[in-house]
Amino acid sequence: MTAPFAFRLHATDGAARTGEISTPRGKIRTPAFMPVGTAATVKAMYPEQVKTLGADIVLGNTYHLMLRPGAERVAELGGLHKFMNWPHPVLTDSGGFQVMSLAKLRKLDENGVAFQSHIDGSRHVLTPERSMEIQGLLGSDIQMQFDECVKLPCADAEAERAMRLSLRWAERSRKAFGGEAGRAVFGIVQGGAVAPLRIESAKALVDMDFHGYSIGGLAVGEPQDVMLAMLEIVTPHLPEGKPRYLMGVGSPDDLLQSVARGVDMFDCVMPTRAGRHGLAYTRFGKVNLRNARHANDPRPLDPDSSCPAARDYSRAYLHHLVKSGEILAMMLLTWANLAYYQELMAAMRAAIAARAFAAFRQQAIADWAREKNGD
């Protein structure tokens, strides 16, 4: 018999929470950061590296995998876990965000979205039912409802229209998901930056009894204080006994502030994308290795890091690799960034368990200022 999907809280400190999600493919320690493996790969990383850094789960992208290599092909080859050599939990997004942001031509109606592939111009239709079918073919452990995400700022009327459509699509997604043991489906709270819409969306999704609840439509152009205000409004209306996932977020400070407001799960391309463009995240703040001031600097990014990329290579060498366009620069900096993100999540889990999160949060913010101040 397949083990059920479950979530258990271990400790709280204020609104911050630490716990554990159980799936048949393994446990996910929360707060958790999910490295983004858009096309069945975390760019510039080996799967075993990603796991060794402390990641319990990665994210795959329904839109991209649907277009290439195709969900049916992945299923024929044994499913996404086998295909990408990652036997641990995988979350797939619904494809809705990419349809909105990447497709050259699209037509949205009650049924779903018809769009043109950004790869070859081929025509496709994505509906709540087809999104859930694709995610099922991929074999992901946590699947997302199909929704419409709007960019902020936007008119309240537009936020309301998209929220209500997303709720109707949530009902269809929940029905299409079925009830396969061990797998989960999450609803997505929408509503722009309008508090009553966010609350209405959250309450309606809770009534549909999803396995977890995501907060979507944030980190899409609004300032951080707006995002945090929406979290403070939404999280009290979500069940304490189910995971809360803030989609597409974010910077180390975004993670810290969102955990303080009760969020359990995150994903973002920021650490991997930054690594490919010469930017490192460290305990001491951001380090732009393109900057000429690093050309003669023999120091590593962090002499006390557990990650060899951050500990064993000089800033001068990393600067040289970046300026030379060497692939190794992308590999090392992506490695260092993902290591720091996982170290940050582990430290937050420990601080919450010790009821010392407020002090940890204050110290982390002070430490990030050191690189900026040249310390």
Describe it.
This protein has 375 residues and is an alpha/beta fold. Helix content is 42%, strand content 19%. It has 15 helices and 16 strands. It has an eight-stranded parallel sheet with strand order 4-14-13-12-11-10-6-5. Helix 6 crosses helix 7 (156-177).
How many E-type strands? Answer: 16
Distance, first to last CA: 56 Å
Biggest β-sheet: count, sense, barrel?
Answer: 8 strands, parallel
State the CATH superfamily name of the largest domain: Queuine tRNA-ribosyltransferase-like
- Name of the level-1 CATH class of the largest domain: Alpha Beta
- Give the mean pLDDT: 95
Structural class category: alpha/beta
Shape: globular
Instruction: Figure out the total of helices.
Output: 15
**What is the CATH architecture assignment of the largest domain?**
Alpha-Beta Barrel
Q: Number of folding domains?
A: 2
- Please give the radius of gyration in angstroms: 20 Å
Q: Estimate percent helicity.
A: 40-55%
How much of the polypeptide forms β-strand, as a percent range? 15-25%
CATH fold-level label of the largest domain: TIM Barrel
Which strand order spans the largest sheet, edge to edge or round the barrel? 4-14-13-12-11-10-6-5
SSE order and pairing:
Layout: E1 6-13, E2 16-23, E3 26-30, E4 32-35, H1 47-52, E5 58-61, H2 62-67, H3 71-76, H4 80-83, E6 90-93, H5 96-102, E7 106-108, E8 113-116, E9 123-126, H6 128-138, E10 142-144, H7 156-177, E11 184-189, H8 195-207, E12 212-215, H9 224-234, E13 244-246, H10 252-259, E14 265-268, H11 270-276, E15 279-282, E16 285-288, H12 308-311, H13 315-324, H14 327-353, H15 357-372
Parallel strand pairs: 4-14, 5-6, 6-10, 10-11, 11-12, 12-13, 13-14
Antiparallel strand pairs: 1-2, 2-3, 7-8, 8-9, 15-16
